[in-house]
């Protein structure tokens, strides 16, 4: 009996560590998260492409949305319904929340932006999900000296403030996308524009790179040692080559 026990313990541990809970990522955001279209294109579908079963993703992001219009048009309500139904089915539910590009265009909206984000964090928690605040994808307008002239910087700051206050998970996509864009430079950054003069949206090739960037940031944020409940490594497929390129500041296409 004793021998059998010693034999089977490692087997049990192997089985336990191989278990991967069904996991869903629900993406809330504007055109810089949304599926590719005539006037929008973000990282959402590129992120989806990094997932492996039992990981799934619903991209709820829509062109032109601010936190205000996403809530007012019922998009947020629909996302929450989906969150609740996945929770019921015993999925781990992660909700990424990335706004700012359109909130920025609203007059005196800074405080309301933070209020909306805080409410969203609370709503997701209320449905048994894990909110992940995402700072906005950087715009690709360069100064002559090669640094980004990105007026979204303060908005990235508001997102960080809310994450801290609400003790919510967050990833700094603004900072990381700015770093990569400044490393590759303006000429190469122009190659990922959705159309001539569109320095905001991503074309198909770029959607994969920034989708991978988000995947890597999420793994780093959620999969720390000892936080097994949030560990997403078993549902995020890897591409070591691309991850290394992003770290080194290279876009090889
Ligand atoms: C995500 O990828 C899967 C598998 O390739 C696909 O079936 C699904 O439609 C995609 N979902 C989105 C939101 O793009
Ligand atoms: C680049 O130019 C901008 C605009 O003049 C300036 O604000 C910024 O500090 C400069 N950055 C560097 C690193 O020189
Ligand atoms: C992995 O990344 C490399 C480098 O960016 C890319 O060429 C390749 O297509 C990627 N592989 C897959 C399976 O996506």
The CATH superfamily is known as: SGNH hydrolase
Mean pLDDT: 93
Profile the largest sheet.
Answer: 5 strands, parallel
State the share of residues found in helices, binned by percent: 40-55%
Order of helices and strands: HEHEHHEHEHEHHHH
The percentage of residues in β strands lies in 5-15%
Number of contiguous helices: 10
Strand order of the largest sheet: 2-1-3-4-5
**Main structural class:** alpha/beta
Compute the separation of the termini in Å: 59 Å
- Overall, the morphology is globular
Number of domains: 1
**Radius of gyration, CA atoms, in whole angstroms:** 19 Å
CATH topology: the name is: Rossmann fold
Low-confidence stretches: 1-15
User: What is the total tally of β strands?
Assistant: 5
InterPro entries: RhgT-like (IPR037459), SGNH_hydro (IPR013830), SGNH_hydro_sf (IPR036514)
Pfam family, one: Lipase_GDSL_2
Domain SGNH hydrolase-type esterase: 28-206
Signal peptide: 1-18
Task: Briefly summarize what is shown.
By secondary structure, this protein is of the alpha/beta class.
What does this structure look like?
This protein has 253 residues and is of the alpha/beta class. The chain has one domain: Rossmann fold, CATH 3.40.50.1110. 47% of the residues lie in helices and 11% in strands. It has 10 helices and 5 strands. It has helices at 2-18, 44-48, 67-72, 75-88, 110-126, 153-166, 173-184, 186-190, 204-222, 240-248; strands spanning 23-29, 55-59, 92-98, 130-134, 169-171. A 5-stranded parallel sheet has the order 2-1-3-4-5, sandwiched between helices. Helix 5 crosses helix 6 (153-166). It is globular and about 50 Å long. One 2-acetamido-2-deoxy-beta-D-glucopyranose (NAG) binds at residues 239, 241-242, 245, 252.
């Amino acid at each position: 009996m004793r021998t059998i026990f010693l034999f089977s313990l490692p087997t049990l541990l192997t089985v336990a560590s191989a278990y991967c809970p069904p996991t869903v990522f629900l993406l809330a955001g504007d055109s810089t998260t949304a599926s590719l279209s005539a006037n929008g294109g973000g990282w959402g579908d590129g992120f989806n492409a990094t997932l492996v079963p039992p990981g799934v993703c619903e991209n709820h992001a829509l062109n032109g949305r601010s936190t205000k219009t996403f809530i007012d048009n019922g998009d947020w309500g629909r996302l929450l319904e989906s969150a609740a139904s996945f929770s019921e089915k015993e999925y781990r539910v992660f909700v990424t929340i990335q706004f700012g590009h359109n909130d920025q265009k609203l007059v005196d909206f800074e405080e309301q932006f933070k209020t909306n984000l805080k409410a969203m964090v609370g709503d997701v928690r209320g449905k048994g999900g894990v909110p992940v605040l995402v700072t906005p994808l950087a715009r690709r307008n360069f100064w002559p000296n090669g640094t980004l002239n990105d007026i979204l910087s303060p908005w990235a700051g508001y997102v960080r403030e809310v994450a801290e206050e609400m003790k919510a998970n967050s990833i700094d996509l603004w900072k990381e996308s700015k770093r990569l864009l400044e490393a590759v430079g303006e000429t190469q950054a122009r190659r990922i524009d959705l159309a001539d003069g569109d320095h905001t949206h991503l074309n198909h090739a770029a959607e994969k790179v920034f989708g991978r960037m988000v995947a890597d940031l999420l793994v780093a944020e959620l999969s720390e040692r000892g936080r097994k409940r949030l560990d997403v490594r078993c549902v995020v497929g890897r591409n070591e080559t691309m991850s290394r390129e992003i770290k080194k500041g290279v876009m090889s296409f």
